[in-house]
Amino acid sequence: MNEVKSALEIAAVDDSKFVLLSVVGSVFCCGLDFDIIVKHLKYNRKRASVKLEDTIKNFVNFFIVFMKPVIVSVKGPAIGLGASILPLCDVVWANEKAWFQTPYTRFGQSPDGCSTITFPKIMGRAAANEMLINGWKMNAQEACDKVLVSQVFWSETFTQEVMVRIQITSCNSFVLENSKALVCYNMNVELKQANERECEVLKKIWASAQGMEYMLKYVQNKIDAF
């Protein structure tokens, strides 16, 4: 998260007109690494939970306030925070093998990435609850139907399709940034407040004995399954 945030900080002040967020390989993002989180929480739950909260809050807030357009190309799975930040970006394209899941309750976690606000707004409350509470694994076409992504392309030609559709390279930077600012104007305060609430709940879960127990159980189950 800190590395992505640092890259965006550089992009914010250089002469680029937009950011293309993509991956090398077949996985877009698997979300938070609970193995690492559990290791940190074992030693000093209170201090580690505050640090983790700050890291996630700052990461998400940077997407909320970032001035330049962010275009995302999703290949493969986008899980947890990897899926929840997508509505904070400006254009999201996926290949047909992409899938999206936010199985927070299975991890013993609560939602993040402002998804408690963005998911109900873009896909409706019922579908949002299927994602955030029930852990619905949504395929690329379903994600497109629910407006989590804007277009789906064949895997074989995905990169070419993305590059062809990036038309904003010829646009004026001032126009792009101000157009985005107008679209986001009424949402940013609400998103920041949602991020604050979500991170506060996560911190409480991480600092609790019950939350720690559930995460340990999840990590152990992963190890046993492997």
From TrEMBL:
CDD domains: crotonase-like. Keywords: Membrane, Transmembrane, Transmembrane helix. The chain crosses the membrane at residues 18-38. The keyword Transmembrane helix applies. InterPro entries: ClpP/crotonase-like_dom_sf (IPR029045), ECH/Chromodomain_protein (IPR051053), Enoyl-CoA_hydra/iso (IPR001753), Enoyl-CoA_hydra_C (IPR014748). It comes from the Eukaryota. The keyword Hydrolase does not apply. It holds the Pfam family ECH_1. This is Uncharacterized protein.
